[in-house]
Structure prediction request, 436 residues.
Amino acid sequence: MHPPSDPRQAEAPLPHPRPRAPEDPRLPPPRPDAGSSGRGPGPSPPPLRVLVAPDSFKGSLTAPEAASAMARGVRRGWPGAAVVALPLADGGEGTAAALVQATGGRWFVRRVTGPLGEPVDARWALLGDGRTAVIEMAAASGLLLVPPDRRRPLEATTFGTGELIRDALDHGCRRLLVAIGGSATTDGGTGMLAALGARFLDAAGAPLPPGGGPLRRLARIDLGGLDPRLAETAIEVACDVDNPLTGPRGAARVYAPQKGATPEQVEILEAGLVRLADVAARTLGRDLRDEPGAGAAGGLGFALLAFLGARLRPGAELVMDAVGFDRHLEWADLVLTGEGRTDAQTLAGKLVARVADRCRARGRPVVVISGAVDPAVEPALRQRGVAALLAATPAPMPPDQAMARAAVHLEAAATTALRLLHLGTRFGPGPRPRGG
Prediction:
């Protein structure tokens, strides 16, 4: 059996069912024909090939930790199985970490401007291809960086996110994947754009102070200093909301209260975003305020769409494509996935449901093992091709105890699932290993 081309990508060296083009080196090469192993007169059955591709288990396990626990359980439950651990994410917390592990990437740390103007140390990821950067706006402009008693929603800025983007450009990146969940801001992305060279001016020609509050005084947008490298950079944005920039479902009225805005401040921020949209439409010759996702992250989605030509995509789909999920799926006989809790929200397009959809489309059985499970969603998941839905927690117990032992429970559940599947293959159809 050949070693994998990137040992950080696989839990074990894995074969591939068919010869692979030489320009796709990220998965292991094909396994030699089983009949040449010298272990008997006939061909030996190939090992079961299992892809473990979970989301994080919020509050207890990161996606890499969950994938490792599942992989250990697979090996215990089906000795000799070949396993690839491919931790995933939905575009929110943990997205960059999952992509770094899957592609053999690395981290860069930079001191940037935090949401309230104070310096923070934030990191961004360079993926294994050497040209794709992953920027999590929450690292520089996130709500968790601001204690509840210090939140100033009219002043919060995305300037630090722009500084991370500029640093990625300085390192030669010309493809950016931007995760925009968890923001502290409602500045319409003007801080990010200012860090990249744009200027937002009042009627006297003076630059506006940071934040969404001053946008009511916006008179002109000067894009003459915008970083020219952005014109040759492809930007994809992980975005799972479809809110417009303004209006009843817009960034200010829906999300600003979660960031500490009072009703009066919400209306100030709404007026600022309306003014931004008006001036941007005049400057750009197109009005994108009602585009789905424009209101994401306090209007950062609008700035990325309107000024940088970004493409907004569901976060889970973006991550799955970035790690080559479909290539791994072609190799696998069986897929295991999971999350902290599988419930009705899962069916609304969360990562586990999207994994199930891709498995069904390619005829691969998938087992979902989550920390907690709402049995009411099982029929819908079965319609999406899920072969089994299991709760990792073995019995009712206090949440803190369940979280503390999450890895142990997940490994045990994966072990049980694989033992049952192994038994099932003796009596009927199951995920039988395919030939090489």
The mean pLDDT is 88. The domain at 95-316 is CATH 3.90.1510.10 (Glycerate kinase, domain 2). The two ends are 12 Å apart (CA to CA). Residues 116 and 240 are 26 Å apart (CA to CA).
